[in-house]
Amino acid sequence: MTGASDRRPPNLLVVVMDCVRASDFPGGSEPVEGMTFTEELLRESTVFQKAVSVAPWTIPAHASLFTGMNPWEHGCHAQASLTLREDIPRLAALLSNSGYATMSLSANPFISSAFGLVAGFERAVWGGWWESYARLPREIPPDGLNVRPGGSGALLRRLRRSPLGAAMLQRMDDVYRYPLLLDSANRVLQHLRAPGHVGDVMVSPWIEPTFARWIRETPVNKPIFAFVNLVDAHEPYYADPSVIRSTRDWVSYARSRQDHVAYAAGSWSLDSDRARQLHQLYRASIRRIDRRLQTLASLLEAEGRWDSTTVVLTSDHGQAFGEHGVLFHMFRPDEPELRIPLIYRGSKSRRGRLARGWASLIDVAPTLLGEASVHPPTTMSGTPLERLVDGDRPGPVLAMSDGLVFGHVRTRFRGPRRERFDRCWGVAYQGDRKVVVDSSDGVKVEYDVVLDYLERAGRTDGGRAAEDPLADAAREVARRMRASVPAAPSEDLEDRLRSWGY
Hints:
The protein contains 18 helices and 19 strands. It is of the alpha/beta class. It has one domain (about 10-390): 3-Layer(aba) Sandwich (Alkaline Phosphatase, subunit A), CATH 3.40.720. Helix 5 packs across helix 6. The radius of gyration is 22 Å and the shape is globular. The protein starts with 10 loop residues before the first strand and ends with a helix. The model is unreliable at about 1-5 and about 140-150 (pLDDT under 50).
């Protein structure tokens, strides 16, 4: 690692494992086994077991990661605008101005120029919307699937202009209703692309070779900042060889319906056996991420950069499998959706140390700027992670959830279901307590998230009889969310969201 006396700026690597929740990650309550590289990385790092996303879905979470600001501060959330404002200082631009080479590689198509999330990066590549449905062998030629910026948007516009394409976009939920068809199509595609292939399949296999080319082309004396988003743990989930033992198993798993909107809306029920099957497939996908992380580290090591690289490994949000009536993410601020892994390996981290304080995605940007000896702008609300190892942050960790935010989703909810989900919440964590305040009626629900991680025994209080600073903090988040004025989504934005199952 880079020592305090070494004046050369460290390389910086941030990897977001999309949808990976804390409980299934090494260090969590039910860690996935066989995560060899990740377990070794944890031994070299400071581990934050009390880490929280600012929101239970991608766009506001990444906006906060890149700006060090909460969603109600930067305004990039579904109750306001889904495009991050140009005038807000960003981590990548600050590092680029300080001499860093910067690159964003995202399998998630939302981390693109369409939402203002890659502004400030010198180079940025993101996957097409269709890539999240494909699982492809590593042997794919690295240039063969490298989607250029703007390509996926152009394809969506062409689809919308055709009656058949428009109908297909309107029925994207069928992908989650009949996963057997998509699983079968993937097997055919894998055979056509790499006949006889036996081994890992992944989402966006172009990421590693593109990363390798970039670091080889960057002068060795120039520090790099690389952001990587891996979506292997994102739905939909397909039959995995480590879980499936027979054709009968494959048919059973591949028929597991994954229509998360219909489940939340009450159109169908998810029994415990199907929830368990989906959870098993999810855990297998996390194990594949471990091998991709090892590849990224090996590429840096081959160029003599790994030992001088500060690493932040985290997620943008978690994933639910039936808890609180939610399948997957986005709708509610529950622990399966908000609690995330956060690992910090840097010059100011402590090897094999469990941090004491609560941490948030907003803490990543000021931490990396500190590593690079760049003064954080006053807009950043985050706390450098090294300050949270032995003590608490100045105030509570805050989060929000913006509920049913898109018209094409809201129309599928009726009656009590709509009343339950069509609202936003303010959330605050401190000590053992988590407080959630409903922005619609001000009702407060409190949990002990140490003894009651599954949130089965929440205490509800609709009044404000006793002074409670933590509840006041959550209530202020809820107030600011409720005061936001939603921007009407464009037709293009609706198509982008619908194309990925939102």
